[in-house]
Design brief:
Elements lengths: L1 E5 L5 E5 L8 H37 L2 H15 L7 H4 L1 H23 L5 H6 L9 H26 L17 H4 L7 H14 L6 H30 L11 H7 L7
Antiparallel strand pairs: 1-2
Helix pairs in contact: 1-2, 1-4, 4-6, 6-8, 6-9, 8-9
């Protein structure tokens, strides 16, 4: 077999390749092909996860259905790379996008129904056979607290009060989940406190979930305390402030005493 090679002076030299008689070559060629396929799949999954993360953030802001369709298309595209054993092989690569999408869908569900979306319903939102692990589901709910916090602060700044429950829930016994829970006086702050207390009560051990949850636990507590401080400031000194006043959370944190969890 004749091949060409460029010399140092730029001229091409013809070289005769020696045929390898090693019995190991076919085996190593198979390993090479498997590794090439692995790296190609891994890169596709990482790219899809990044795109899903970006679209999920946009989904929280506006154009929910448009962003949801684009995300579903990405899940359909990457789904074949996440079947069988590959679902766990590339779980860390897709995890970021799955958690971000869980946060977006659970926030949409909370605004509609004032409840957490169950794992089974959340799994139905994933197309292409993508599996929602319990770890990603729980970590996505941790992130939900931050989004609810921003929603509460915005409402306090613009309306001077926490958001009211969805009016569509009122007057219908089948969907009035607030009354069904026997908590007619529930509000957003109480929901955040309940979620915080339930997260704190769970012992997640030294697993990967426990390590990831430990990082998000402090952020989650801080988010709830920010809403508590903002509501306190609005209730106690709200009438002294002009309409449209935005709470300075950093100033409140510097002046406030440590908030004890309930």
């Amino acid at each position: 077999m004749t091949t060409s090679k460029r010399a140092h002076d730029g001229t091409m030299k013809e070289m005769t390749a020696k045929h390898s008689t090693s019995s190991f070559m076919p085996m190593f060629e198979m390993f090479r092909n498997d590794l090439d396929e692995h790296h190609d799949r891994r890169e596709r999954v990482i790219k899809a996860s990044r795109d899903i993360t970006a679209l999920s953030k946009k989904m929280i802001l506006a154009e929910v259905e448009k962003q949801k369709k684009a995300i579903n298309d990405l899940f359909e595209l990457v789904g074949p790379d996440l079947h069988d054993i590959n679902a766990w092989r590339y779980q860390r690569q897709i995890s970021g996008g799955v958690q971000e999408y869980t946060e977006a869908i659970s926030f949409e569900h909370y605004l509609k129904w004032q409840t957490l979306i169950p794992h089974e319903l959340m799994q139905d939102e994933f197309k292409g056979g993508v599996v929602l692990t319990w770890d990603d589901y729980v970590l996505g709910l941790f992130d939900l607290v931050g989004e609810v916090m921003r929603f509460a602060i915005t409402s306090l700044a613009t309306n001077g009060a926490l958001p009211e429950p969805n009016p569509e829930l009122k007057g219908d016994a089948q969907v009035d989940l607030v009354a069904a829970l026997g908590m007619e006086d529930r509000d957003l702050l109480l929901d955040l406190r309940m979620l915080r207390s339930h997260f704190e009560a769970v012992n997640m051990g030294e697993s990967s979930l426990g390590r990831d949850a430990a990082k998000k636990m402090e952020v989650m507590k801080t988010c709830v305390e920010k809403v508590e401080n903002a509501v306190y400031g609005m209730k106690i000194r709200g009438r002294e402030r002009p309409k449209g006043w935005v709470p300075d959370l950093r100033e409140e944190e510097r002046r406030a005493e440590p908030v004890e969890s309930y």
